[in-house]
Amino acid sequence: MVLNGDHNISIDEIREGLDAAYSIFEHKWLKTQHKKQPNDPLLFHLKPTVSHNYQIHAIRNGLSHEMHPLAEAVLAGEEINKQYQQDGRFCFGNIVYLLISIRDIIKNKDRINNLKERVIKLQSEEWKSTLYEMLIAASYANNTVVNMLPERNVPTPDLMIPFSPALYVECKAKLWYEDEIVNFINEWRRNALGEIASFLKDVDAGFLVKIIMKHKHHFGDIPIHIREMVSKGVEYLRHTIC
Questions:
Q1: Are strands 167-169 and 112-113 parallel, antiparallel or unpaired?
Q2: 131 pLDDT exceeds 90?
Q3: What average pLDDT does the segment 15-21 reach?
Q4: Mean pLDDT highest for which of 76-85, 89-98, 152-161?
Q5: Domain boundaries, the chain
Q6: Which of 206, 196, 203, 162 is nearest to 55 (CA)?
Q7: What does the pLDDT read at residue 126?
Q8: What is this structure's pTM?
Q9: pLDDT score of 78
Q10: pLDDT in tens, 172-203
């Protein structure tokens, strides 16, 4: 979202975000996406009941048919608005910031040229970098008209601000840090968490497992240690790998 000082999200702004999203996303696309699995805790009550085997599979490999994050933000806004209309309770989740970002972009659409060419990419896997470019354009649009430049096969700026002289802007969302985190989580799920969950579901007791890792080496050793701890009744283990 575009911030101009301290800000608290209100129900009216969420409704504005919904109107903005409805104006650029096709109803058919949203409807299709909303049949998929949400990730945000705000929407966990919409998850279907699944078997233990499916739960383990999801832990190991991640959810299949995941909802597009922007479509999920729309669904979250709808659920918040529905709850507020029912009993006046105002729920909130961080994913709502994506919805407010869409609102801020559309609010400035008359001052951003060539915006429509970017909108379709919001529904693709490149949505993050595209949303970032559009938000940067919206932040400049508070003071002047912004030109979003056509994308090409050769490196070119993303925005042109018609100052005197003209200002060209290249937007770089540093997504490789996030990619490293995603890769770590995927490896952790496949090689450790899935095995731990599969083992503990067959043990007739409740467990709260807390694991502190200093580095990602030897993921496969962790489930082995968990099995040994459970079988021996050990509650705490400090294992140092040199």
A1: unpaired
A2: yes
A3: 97
A4: 76-85
A5: 1-107, 176-232
A6: 196
A7: 87
A8: 0.71
A9: 97
A10: 877 666 677 778 878 888 888 888 888 888 88
Residue with tokens 């995603």: 182
Q: Which helix (H) or strand (E) holds 146?
A: strand 146-148
Burial of residue 104 (number of CB atoms within 10 Å: 0-12, 13-18, 19+): buried
- What's the CA gap between 98 and 93, in Å, rounded? 10
Tokens matching residue 49: 């009941």
Average pLDDT (99-125) is 92
Per-residue tokens: 84: 């507020």
Residues 189-194: contacts with CB under 8 Å, at least 24 apart: 189/59, 189/60, 189/61, 189/62, 190/60, 190/61, 191/219, 191/220, 192/219, 192/220, 192/222, 192/223, 193/59, 193/60, 194/56, 194/59, 194/60, 194/61
Spatial CA neighbour of 74 closest among 114, 118, 112, 127: 127
DSSP line for 61-85: H--SSBPPHHHHHHHHHHHHHHHHH
CA dist 219 → 134, 227, 231, 239 (Å)? 40, 14, 20, 12
